Predict the structure.
Amino acid sequence: MKNIASRFAKIQFTEKSAPFAFLAACILGFGLMIPSLGFYMDDWPYVFYAYNKGIASLREMLLYDSRPYAAWLYILAFKILGFKPLYWHLAALFMRWLTVVLFWKVLSAIWSNRTRETISIALLFAVYPFFMLQPFAVGSTHHWVGFVFFNLSLYLMVLAVQQKKYLWLIIPAALLQAAHLFTSEYFAGLELLRPFILWILISRSESSTQKRFWRTFLHWLPYLLVLGIYAYWRAFLFQNVEGVTRNTPVILNQLFSEPFKAIGFLLSASVKDAVSVMTIGWQSAMSADLLDFNSVYVRFRLIVSLIGFGFAFLYLSGLDVDKEPPADDWSKRSVLLAAVGLMVGGLPVWLIGRYILESKNLLSASRFGIPSMLGAAFLLVLIIDYFVSDRKKKIVLLSLCIALAVNFHLDNTKEFQYSWEKQERFLQQLLWRAPKIQPGTALLTDEEILGVMGEYAVSFSIITAYQPGDVQSPPYWYFPFYYTNPNVGDLLRGAPLEYSKLTMNFSGNSNQMLLLSFNPEMKRCLWIMQPQDTNLRLVSNDMRQLSAGSDISLIGQGEASLPEVIYGRQNTQTWCYYFEKADLARQYGQWDEIARLWEESQAIGERADNGFEYIPFIEGYGHLEDWNYVTKQTKFANKITAGLEPSLCSALDRLVASASPSQERDDTIKNLKDDLKCANYQ
C-alpha cells in the first residue's frame, strides 16, 4: 500500500492539463448517460418545427417565443446536428465544457499566480449541482452558447486591459457581448461583473482612487453602451407578437413608477435566489433517499461518484504549482467578485417578476440559476479555503463536493433516461395501434404519462411521430384530463378541448377523442380504450366511465413508423407490437391477421404479462371457430391477471353476438361463463 501511495504521490499535473480535467469531470457528471437520452419538454417545439415545417420555420417559432434573434443559432445548429438526440447531447456537453474552460481562462488571466485556486473553482463549476436541465440538449442550446459568448467576451476584455497591444480586442469583446445579450438574455445580469473586474485590474497600476474610477469607467464604457442599447431595445422597442404575453419586464417598468417597491423586490429576490443556488443542490445530493442499495443504478451512481472523488483528489493533489503563491490582491478581491457573481446572476429573471423559490417546478426553474452557478462555485471554494487551513483536508473536502455533485447529476439524469425510453415505447405502440388518426382528434389520458414532458411537449412529439409535414394547425393534441377538465360527465356530454402553443392552435371537442391507458411500469402495453371497456377493473373508475366516449372509428388502417432519423429503427419483435396490431385487426374484423400475428409471436417466444392483452386473440380465434384455443387462453388470461372476469365475460358476449353459431361455440362459451361466474357481472 505504501508503494502504491508513493507512486500516486509522484504523479504531477501541469496547468496545461486543466482543460482535460474539466472534460473528465463533465463526462463523469453528464457524459456517461448520453447514449440513452433523447428529447424532452422544451426540446420538442424546436424539433417539431424544424422537422415538420422546415428548419427556416424556427424564425417564426422563436418570434412567438420572444427570442427572435436566437433563430440564427438554432437554424445553424439543426443544419449541423440534424435530428439525432445523440449529436445534440454531445454538443451540449461540449458547450458546457467550453464554458468552464473560458471561465477558468478569465480567472487565470486576472490572477495568473493562483493556478491551484482557479483550477479548483473551475473544476467545481463544471459539475456544480443546481442546473437540472442539462438533458434538455436542444432547448438549453441558447443557454450554453450565451454563456460561452459571455465568458469569451470577458476574457478578451481582460486581455485588452492588461496589454496595450491587445486593446483592439475591445471590438470582438463588445460584439460577443451583443451576441450573447440578443441571443440569450440569461446572462445580462452577469454583465455587472465587468466594472468589478476592471477595477481589480486597474487598481494594480493606478494608486489614485479618482483615476481608478475614471479609467474603470472609460474601459467599461463600450460594454455599458452595448448593455444600454440592449436594455433600451428590450424595455421599449421589443414587442411580443399580438396575443403573446411572455417575459414582460414588469419590475424594470416598475423601477420608473414605484422605484422603492421594485428595489425591494430585487433585493429580496437576489438574496433568496443566492441562498437557493448555494444550498438546494447540495441538499438533494446528500439525501438519504438516494441510497437504495438494492437498485443497480444506485450502485452504478455511487461507483461513478467514488471515481469522481478519486479523480479529483488525485488531480488536485498532483497539481505542479508553487505551494505558496506570492502576495497579491486575491484575498481582498476574490470574495467581492464571487459574491457579485452570485448576487447579480438572476437579474434578467427578477426583472420579469420571477425568482427560483416562487416557482412550483424547481426542475424547470433551475435554469434561472445558471448564471449564478459561476459565483456559487467561486464562493464555495473560497469558503473551504478560509475555514480549512490544511491543504490535504481542503483537497479532500473539495473532492467530496465534486463526488456529491456527480451523484446529484447522475440521479437527476435517470428520470430523463426513463422518460425517453417511455416516450419511444409510447409512440411506437401508438403508431402500431393507430397508424392513422382523423384530424381534430383529442388524445386523452387520466394523468400525465411521461416524465419531464408536459402536455404541449407530448403533443408535439405525437404530431412529429406521424410526420404530417408543414401543418398550419395541429391535427391532434394531447390532454391529461385530470388537469384539463376532471369532470368526466362534462367530457362525456362534449366539452371543448383547446390549446395554444407558439403558432399552433388546437380546437377540439371531447366528442372526438381517443382515451389512452399507458402503464409500462405495470408491464402493460398501450391500451386504446373503447366503450366495451366500461367494466375494465384494471383502470380507474374515471377511466372506465370515460371509455364510453372513446371513439376508435377515428382510427384508420395503414402503415406508419417513427422517424428513423430521430428514433432509429423500430423493433417489432416485441409482444406489444403483436398486441397493438391484433387490436387494430380486431377493430376491422381481420381474424386471419390476428391468427397470423399470434403464430408469429409464439414463434419468437413473446407473450403478454397482462391477461387483458389476450382478449383480441381470444375474439379472433373465436371467429375462426378454434374453440379449444378460446378455452385455453381465456382460462390462462384469467389466471395471470386478477379482476379480469368482467372484461372476459364481455368478450364472450361479443362472440355470442358475432361469431358463427354452432353447438361447440355455445357449449364453450357457456362453460367459460360458468367458470368465470359471469352472472355476477351482468
